[in-house]
Amino acid sequence: MEVLSVTLAQWSFILLALKDPRMTFRRLHTIPPSKVREKENGQAVLSKGADTPASVWEEPYPMDMSKRIPWVLALMVSYRLTDWKIGDPSHDKTQPPPRHDRLKFCKHALATIIQSYIILDAAAFYTQTDPYFIQSHMSMDAAFPPPSSQMPFILVLLRLLPPRLLRSAVLAADTYGSVTLLFYMPTLPAVGLNAVGLLPDGLSPQNWPVFFGPFSAVLDRGVRGLWGTWWHQMSRYTTSMPGRSLCYALQIPTSSILGYALITISAFFNSGVLHMGLVPPKPLKTTYSANLLYFYVAAFFWVQIVAFGVELIVSKLAQRIMPKASRSLTARFLTLIWVAAWLCLTLPIIAVPFREMRYWDIYPLPVSIWKGLSGNGWLTWT
Q1: Which residue in 263, 267, 301, 354 has a CA-CA distance of 20 to 30 Å to 131?
Q2: Which residues of 340-379 are buried (b: 16+ CB within 10 A; e: fewer)?
Q3: For 237-284, how does the pLDDT look when each residue is reduced to its tens digit (9 = 90+)?
Q4: Can you give the pLDDT at residue 1?
């Protein structure tokens, strides 16, 4: 059991049980209209001609087997449904996503990689000095051990913060740095292949929806903005589609409070199940059973539903009492404090399986800027 396998299982369930791709799905192709002479059974027949402004045509489920196989294979790996219309207006109105300039995307990707490397390196550097990230059954509220004489001053200074706040911030930074590097590092070679004509435009990352949204969404909408807009949406459709399909079956408007609740419950319940795949069937070097670690991972996502409910109630009351206060600087500051408090409360849940699986026993990067600057050597894998 692992994340990709669970993702594929959830995606297969959606395509086979909840949707009918043969009837409602359309694959989108962005091509110069001067090259389209005619369409036969939804298939574009290309003719020679100079490039003109791009046009989009929709390819339904092909009748011809030679065209059907690539159509189906493309759908199977399109977890974000980029360049697909599925008969859902909330999704279809966003397709196809805007195409971006390669150079601009590469600059953004490179800046993100450098930033994430520094953040992940800083988090890893700290975890090597705090026994909480290594010792089983240690509470996140446990006092810091006395600093050694060789400990860098910045780490000594950080220990003036409450243990839970500092350790939660390190865990959040570690997760953010790891995920962003995982997403962005493969994009530069892919864009390079697209530039020399070895990768189609539809498969080139500069033409995909952005991985992360604006952080301002967290300040405006709290935990809902954190998970619904700022954090990556790679599994959004595979996890929320069951709830959305239930709304359609029961004729519940997805914009209603009940519809919103069903979609939210579906998204986080299935996210919890999906991330259970992070735990191997037989974890090594731990006194916890695999089932207990599965529960810890899933519980972190399941409890997020509570925050969504709390925020929904509070936002509705605030709109009635102080309709103009939600966008004020004070409101955004209080929202940030609330999000930080919520993460301090819930991040320890997922820290347990991460620690038990020895995530922090090995330095994640081969070269450490922070270790090098502190005089402990630049290379970490030697």
Answers
A1: 301
A2: eebbbebbbbbbbbbbbbebbeebbbeebebbeebeeeee
A3: 889 999 999 999 999 998 899 999 999 999 999 999 999 989 988 888
A4: 52
Within 8 A by CB and 6+ apart from 212, the residues are 180, 230, 231, 232
**At 58, is the secondary structure helix, strand, or coil?**
strand
pLDDT of residue 114: 97
Contacts of 130 (CB under 8 A, 6+ apart): 144, 167, 170
Give the residue from 14, 33, 32 showing the smallest Cα distance to 24. 14
In this prediction, residue 335 carries a pLDDT of 93
Residue among 272, 303, 302, 280 at smallest CA distance from 354 = 280
Cα 282 → chain centroid: 26
Integer angstrom CA distances of residue 260 from 100, 269, 312? 32, 14, 10
Phi, psi (deg, nearest 5) at residue 104: -65, -40
3-state secondary structure at position 30 = strand
Q: Using CB atoms within 10 A of its CB, is residue 337 exposed (0-12), middle (13-18) or buried (19+)?
A: exposed
**pLDDT given for residue 306 in this prediction:** 96
Give the largest Cα separation in the chain, rounded: 77
Give residue-wise pLDDT tens across range 324-350.
666 678 889 999 999 999 999 999 999
Query: 10 Å Cβ neighbour count for 69?
Result: 11
pTM of the model: 0.87
Torsion sign, CA atoms 160, 162, 168, 172: negative
Produce one character per residue of 266-281: b if its CB has 16 or more CB atoms within 10 Å, e if not: bbbbbbbbbbbbbbee
- How many CA atoms does the CB half-sphere of 83 hold within 13 Å? 25
Which portions of the chain are predicted below pLDDT 50? 38-41, 43-53
| pLDDT for the residue 32 | 54
